[in-house]
Amino acid sequence: MRWTVLVLLFFGMIVNFADKSIIGLAAKPIMEDLNLSYAEWGIVGSAYYWLYPITGIFGAAWADKIGAKKVLSFLMLTWAVLQFGVIAITALPLLIVYRILLGAFEGPFSPVAYSHADRWFPPKLKGFANSVLVSGATVGAMVVAPLLVAMIVAWGWKVAFAALGGVSIIWFFLFMFLTKESPVEAYEKVKKKKKLEKFTLKDLKHIATSKVALFTTLAYFSTYFIVVWIATWLPLYLVDVIGMSTGQMGFAVAAIGIVSVAIYMGVSVISDYLFKKTKDWKLSRVYVTGLSMLLGAACMLSVVVYQNPIWVIIAMCLAKGLTYAILPIGPTIMINELPERGGLMTSILTSSGNLAGIVAPLATGFVVNLASTKLLGYNLSIGAMAILVLVFSLLFLLVVRPKTTENTSELSEEAS
């Protein structure tokens, strides 16, 4: 059952990030249809994240209370309704409203999915399980890009959006009928804790004063600038600056996605292997992740000085793959801080990180609009993101020292 759950969560992440990324792939036709400037497009990219951090926290807390399966299924249905509703969009205000609502209902999915997977897998497999979920995000955001681009070219952007709504409905029925809430033993233990314990000021104080939570969140936050930039601006960057055609851009985005998945899954497997051998959180989780982020940020920075198309693709593969190491391993570190509040802890991480989603599209849009050349504008945004990741990954390496605890998910190894 644990693998069925993981596979369906993987496909759920594909849908989630395809919903996010299709807006970037359809940027040119949407901007032409609605007559939008770069600055207005930056607002469209940012609008998705205006409610995302808030609903992420409340949605994950709700899932801790009533069950992840119910919440994930409900969220998927709302995406279907919103994607079909795209057909009615005829102006910028309606596009912004659609993006705000989509972000609001997609906000809780990632933290709830991480928490749900965490319940099914023992510590020695947590990094791998989370890397599978993150790979679903990359597949949805990048690997399926040629298919989404082909749909946009053949049938128009509105039909392509509606097609994703149809996929959401299929996922809903599969998830409802093929999965369970959690392994029996782990579920019973969690239910008993929920009956005996309520969220207290002590829990809040622990979260607020935890250096582990703070600097893990800051590292995640810095990486999310790259996550959002890739989803919103990478397709335009490859076309406007690197000089690729729309078709070439689609395949380049897919190639970056495929290679980066192999890289950050490899980092996660190394992290799990070291944890299994040493039980050392600092070595296996912090050092492996922090060093990967530093190398990835350096690769991102290299694009500012060398724009050869082949190198840009290679550098983006390395930058995405290495900096994304915090995405699967960060939730594991956060849940370890307060295991009984797994959904809340991951939602704090992802929602705080997604604050970057509000800033990154707006900042890039205005910088590109105001810069003397598009190349200068894009280089300024790329350089700023790379330096931010360098700073926060270094702080992550120096400050974060996770505690050693046993998680209730260990019970799931036999129960599932």
UniProtKB/TrEMBL annotation:
The record's listing under Gene3D superfamilies reads:
MFS general substrate transporter like domains
User: Which UniProt keywords are given for this protein, alphabetically ordered?
Assistant: Membrane, Transmembrane, Transmembrane helix, Transport
- The lineage's top-level taxon is Bacteria
- Enumerate the spans annotated as Major facilitator superfamily (MFS) profile domain: 5-405
Q: Does the keyword Isomerase apply?
A: no
Task: Give TM regions.
Answer: 42-64, 71-90, 127-153, 159-179, 212-231, 251-274, 286-304, 310-327, 348-368, 380-400
Localisation per UniProt entry: Cell membrane
Transmembrane: is it a keyword of this entry? yes
Q: Which Pfam families match?
A: MFS_1
Q: Which InterPro entries match?
A: MFS (IPR011701), MFS_dom (IPR020846), MFS_Na/Anion_cotransporter (IPR050382), MFS_trans_sf (IPR036259)
Q: What is the protein's membrane topology class?
A: Multi-pass membrane protein
PANTHER family assigned: BLR1003 PROTEIN, SOLUTE CARRIER FAMILY 17
What's this protein's name? MFS family permease
**Where does this protein come from, organism-wise?**
Cytobacillus purgationiresistens
Species lineage, top-down?
Bacteria, Bacillati, Bacillota, Bacilli, Bacillales
